[in-house]
Amino acid sequence: LLNQHYQQTFKGKLVMRFDDTNPAKEEGHFEKAILSDLQLMGVKANKYSHTSEYFDQIIQLGEQLIRQGDAFADDTDAETQKEERLQLKNSRRRDNSLEQNLSWWREMLAGSEQGKKCCVRAKIDMQSMNGAMRDPTIFRCKSEPHVRTGTKYKAYPTYDFACPIVDHLEGVTHALRTTEYHDRDDQYYWFTEKLDIRTVSPSDPTVHFPHLYEYSRLALQHTLLSKRKLAWFVDQGRVDG
């Protein structure tokens, strides 16, 4: 509703995008329910899309980061990665050779046993006081089939990596994000800088898009909005869908 308000006020275009970057959490009937609810509320987008439509371009740009030396493949287990982030400690894989990184990257794309042990991490700043900048994961392997792409892909981008790329590809100039993304704004702009995908305003070369705007998320009492919690009611048969 807030996006549509600004779109109508400034006579812009509204993009309705499903960020389906995690096949383990995507189900077709969720999308149908969301679209039905939007219709009920009178929200009409100019464009409907899925992040999965851009997987090929996102993978290409992920490899570009690796070749630039701005990302590396890491087979460190998730718990150790978490501890190292808290300790501001570099991964032992951070200074892999380009050949090693590309080798493991290909294993990830193939979904091999070695590939499943790895992730790709952006090489940003493990000493940063912003935890979102401590070499975040940008690709990981998922064995579940994707609701739209099936088993075509084995390595999937994270939302944080895919979002600025798809915003660029879809010509987004203004993105509204709730305040829990605040710490990740620096990461968003780091990706746009390293991939050279910031857009210059045709009317003013000093203005760059996209602009990120924050707003507080809506909280309602005595009900649940969390998809994870709502899914429990469906799975337990307490509701019919």
From TrEMBL:
Stated name of the protein: Glutamyl-tRNA synthetase
A single Gene Ontology CC term:
methionyl glutamyl tRNA synthetase complex
Keyword Transport assigned: no
One Pfam short name? tRNA-synt_1c
Drop me one GO molecular function for this one.
Answer: ATP binding
Residue ranges of domain Glutamyl/glutaminyl-tRNA synthetase class Ib catalytic in the record: 1-240
The processes (GO biological process) annotated in the record are:
glutamyl-tRNA aminoacylation
Which InterPro entries does the UniProt record give? Gln/Glu-tRNA_Ligase (IPR050132), Glu/Gln-tRNA-synth (IPR000924), Glu/Gln-tRNA-synth_Ib_cat-dom (IPR020058), Rossmann-like_a/b/a_fold (IPR014729)
| Keyword set, alphabetical order | Aminoacyl-tRNA synthetase, ATP-binding, Ligase, Nucleotide-binding, Protein biosynthesis
Give the family this protein belongs to, as stated in its UniProt record: Belongs to the class-I aminoacyl-tRNA synthetase family.
